[in-house]
DNA sequence: ATAACCGTTTAGACTTAATCTAATTTACGT
DNA sequence: ACGTAAATTAGATTAAGTCTAAACGGTTAT
């Protein structure tokens, strides 16, 4: 796990190369942003952040990159209410709490959840991944709702 | 659990009234359709099905109804790849398997999965619901992919 | 039954996340 | 350096879902 800027650079480049992707400034910027911002940003937020200093990535490229990273298993896509996909770097597996009122998304460590699937399913499907979304009211919205 | 048409009619009407909703032909049609079609249809599919005989529900009404039923806890919304929400009547809790290749959505009985959340979360959030999505390749796509 | 109220329905315009396209640029192996 | 396949781009396009203001119709009270 990289600690300083140089290590992050090498890690990001290594991850891209390992996924068979050319290392472009755009891809670097997107993956570097996701590495240092675990806030489940939307594609639009990523585009804005990445283009803050020197505009360098078009919308199409941001989407292309995110899809490539997703297929490479480096990035998780979160589909939620509102039809806006959010993106999350996949450094270690974790689940999510989502507040139904304010939309807050919070990581939930796997240790706080015990999920055991009786696998493989009888149907012959191959299970690759288990996404758990805990829904409810965050502490803040709870206060408001409970009065 | 209703068995014949008349019982279904009474059940559907009762559910609507219990949710504080007026019983309109449009709402009846949507809920009745979801009762008898557990295929995770999209709003568009529901609209088409409901309007097959006598057009009676506009797009806005289909969405209004689905949202009302969702808020009443009668209908579950499934957000997935492609930004198209799918709807599922909530008769008994269950989870879902989704094939990443062909998009197949299959119910997974809760008995096949043991999910235990160490709750409540320390954060003070109120947990209301646990959605589990099992992702992978369905038997059919598995064969194609594995050659 | 009648009336009146307010929740519900409606068509169609509108918003916007995401995709598509075809021309241009660029990373990288040789 | 060069050549080529891969990647980027601006802008048009698609389509899921929302919004609006006018008309309608369940429900309840009389
Ligand atoms: Mn996360
Ligand atoms: Mn289901
Ligand atoms: Zn909240
Ligand atoms: Zn499949």
From TrEMBL, chains A, B:
Question: Can you cite a GO biological process for this protein?
Answer: regulation of secondary metabolite biosynthetic process
User: At which positions is Zn(2+) bound?
Assistant: 99, 102, 138, 141
Q: Lineage of the native species?
A: Bacteria, Pseudomonadati, Acidobacteriota, Blastocatellia, Blastocatellales
Obligatory cofactor(s) = Zn(2+)
Q: Which GO terms describe its molecular function?
A: DNA-binding transcription factor activity; transcription cis-regulatory region binding; zinc ion binding
Q: How cofactor binds (record note)?
A: Binds 1 zinc ion per subunit.
Keywords from UniProt, A to Z, are: DNA-binding, Metal-binding, Repressor, Transcription, Transcription regulation, Zinc
Q: Which family does it belong to?
A: Belongs to the Fur family.
| UniProt keyword Transport present | no
Q: Does the keyword NADP apply?
A: no
What is the native source organism of this protein?
Pyrinomonas methylaliphatogenes
Q: Which residues cross the membrane?
A: none
Q: State the protein's name.
A: Fe2+/Zn2+ uptake regulation protein
């Amino acid at each position: 796990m990289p600690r300083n800027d140089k290590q992050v650079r090498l890690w990001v480049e290594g991850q891209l190369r390992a996924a068979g992707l050319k290392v472009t400034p755009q891809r670097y910027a997107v993956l570097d942003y996701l590495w240092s911002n675990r806030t489940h940003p939307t594609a639009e937020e990523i585009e804005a952040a990445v283009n803050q200093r020197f505009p360098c990535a078009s919308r199409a490229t941001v989407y292309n990159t995110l899809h490539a990273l997703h297929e490479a298993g480096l990035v998780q896509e979160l589909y939620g209410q509102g039809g806006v996909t959010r993106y999350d770097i996949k450094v270690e597996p974790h689940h999510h709490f989502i507040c139904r009122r304010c939309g807050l998304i919070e990581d939930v460590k796997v240790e706080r959840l015990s999920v055991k699937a009786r696998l493989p399913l009888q149907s012959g499907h191959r299970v690759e991944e288990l996404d758990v979304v805990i829904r409810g009211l965050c502490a803040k919205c709870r206060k408001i709702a409970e009065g």
